[in-house]
């Protein structure tokens, strides 16, 4: 088992540990429950996870109340939050209780948000079951729900008490969902670690075959990168913006397509577009851009370019203008200087982009698919 400590110096009570390993779910969860000694325990999950792991949940924590909602991004809204609130209230959870988020990114984001507002804050633990949730949404304390205006526009910063990542959960993950998670892993490498980019290039087959030594190493390295960034900038004042590489354009693509494509696939297209913007600004070398496109393409993340061609442009730009990094209505993106390094000017890590530049960058996504 690998252990990564996320230490938040300004808010020491928000520090916690991330556990990564094969078959650690039951023992590690029981150990954390023993450490926290809650008055009551509630597990929040979705219908798919409950169907797959009902017995495993019962064995690990037989005294826990289990609440589920229908699986899918469409459920990530305030109506479901209010329904879950009623369930927790009816079960008698108080401020000394514990809520456990068991599932993918939707479950983790919603449960974290619910935990942050229920009785003004109840402890919770993240148990991510998808690759995307393991390396992204379960770490760092961002929580939230979607609205018709955009993704995660209602939310809070609220850190879990622990994060438990059992790679056994990935064995039941559909291949498309594993690929979905690879976008965030590629992002971590591109923004922070050139050697990690090389690792992903050289071990594509082993990773896609879920070979355990490579899988644990990959997840641990991504978690370490995210932990290092969050420790320096918990509330996204400056440095933490680099974790949004690919997301300004990626989220806008998601919204314009009514969330008909998975998050990771949209972010992959966003990374290509934002890398293209870096080239257009004379910051990133064309050779590095080609390597980025090849890596993303080789991991099977460019599957929705036909949908991109038919995307509603007005809807895209409306969504892009609501991105949380924007200032005074100006669309801002994170750009790359080279493989493994973002471009910045002092403490400024995101930069204003004109609509015309974005349109040109979006065309480069199609070019990567069609021209290799």
Write the layout of secondary structure elements.
Layout lengths: L1 E5 L9 E6 L3 H12 L4 E6 H14 L4 E5 L8 H13 L7 E6 L1 H13 L6 E5 L2 H7 L4 E6 L2 E8 L4 E5 L8 H18 L1 H9 L1 H5 L3 H21 L14 H10 L6 H18 L5 H13 L6 H5 L3 H8 L11 E2 L2 E3 L2 E2 L8 E2 L2 H17 L1
Parallel strand pairs: 2-9, 3-4, 3-5, 5-6
Antiparallel strand pairs: 1-2, 7-8, 10-13, 11-12
Helix pairs in contact: 1-2, 4-5, 5-6, 5-9, 6-7, 6-9, 6-11, 10-11, 10-14, 11-12, 11-15
If you had to describe this structure to a student in words, what would you say it looks like?
- The protein has 372 residues and is of the alpha/beta class.
- The protein is built from 15 helices and 13 strands.
- The strands form 5 sheets. It has a 4-stranded parallel β-sheet with strand order 4-3-5-6, with helices on both faces.
- The protein is globular.
Relative strand content: 15-25%
Describe the biggest sheet?
A: 4 strands, parallel
- What helical percentage do the residues reach? 40-55%
Overall pLDDT confidence: 94
Q: Could you tell me how far the N terminus lies from the C terminus, measured between alpha carbons in angstroms?
A: 39 Å
Radius of gyration: 20 Å
- Assembly category: single chain
- Uncertain residue segments: none
Number of alpha- plus pi-helical segments: 15
User: What letter string, H or E per element, gives the SSE order?
Assistant: EEHEHEHEHEHEEEHHHHHHHHHEEEEH
The coarse overall form would be globular
């Amino acid at each position: 088992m690998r252990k990564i400590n996320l230490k938040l110096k300004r808010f020491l009570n928000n520090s916690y540990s991330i556990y990564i390993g094969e078959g650690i779910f039951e023992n590690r969860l029981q150990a954390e429950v023993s450490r926290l000694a809650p008055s009551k325990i509630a597990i929040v999950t979705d219908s798919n996870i409950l169907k797959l792991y009902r017995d495993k949940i019962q064995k690990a924590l037989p005294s826990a109340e289990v609440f589920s909602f229908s699986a899918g991004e469409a459920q990530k809204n305030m109506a479901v939050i209010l329904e879950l609130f009623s369930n927790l209230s009816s079960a008698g959870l108080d401020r000394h209780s514990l809520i456990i988020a068991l599932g993918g990114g939707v479950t983790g984001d919603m449960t974290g948000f619910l935990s942050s507002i229920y009785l003004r804050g109840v402890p919770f633990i993240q148990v991510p079951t998808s690759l995307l949730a393991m390396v992204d949404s379960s770490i760092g304390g961002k929580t939230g729900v979607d609205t018709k205006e955009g993704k995660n526009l209602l939310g809070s910063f609220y850190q879990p008490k622990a994060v438990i990542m059992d790679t056994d959960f990935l064995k039941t993950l559909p291949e498309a969902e594993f690929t979905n998670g690879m976008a965030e892993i590629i992002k971590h490498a591109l923004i922070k670690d050139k050697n990690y980019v090389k690792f992903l290039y050289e071990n594509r087959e082993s990773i896609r075959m879920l070979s355990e030594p490579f899988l644990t190493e990959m997840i641990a390295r991504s978690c370490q990168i995210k932990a290092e960034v969050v420790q320096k900038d918990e509330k996204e004042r400056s440095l933490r913006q680099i974790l949004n590489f690919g997301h300004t354009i990626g989220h806008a693509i998601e919204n314009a397509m009514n969330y008909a494509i998975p998050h990771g696939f949209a972010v992959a297209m966003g990374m290509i577009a934002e890398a293209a913007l870096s080239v257009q600004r004379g910051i990133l070398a064309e050779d590095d851009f080609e390597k980025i496109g090849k890596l993303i393409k080789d991991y099977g993340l460019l599957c929705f370019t036909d949908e991109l061609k038919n995307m509603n442009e007005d809807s895209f730009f409306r969504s892009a203008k609501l991105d949380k990094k924007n200032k005074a209505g100006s669309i801002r993106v994170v750009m790359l200087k080279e493989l493994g390094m973002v471009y910045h000017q002092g403490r400024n890590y995101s930069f204003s982009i004109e609509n015309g530049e974005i349109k040109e960058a979006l065309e480069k996504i199609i070019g990567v698919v069609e021209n290799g």
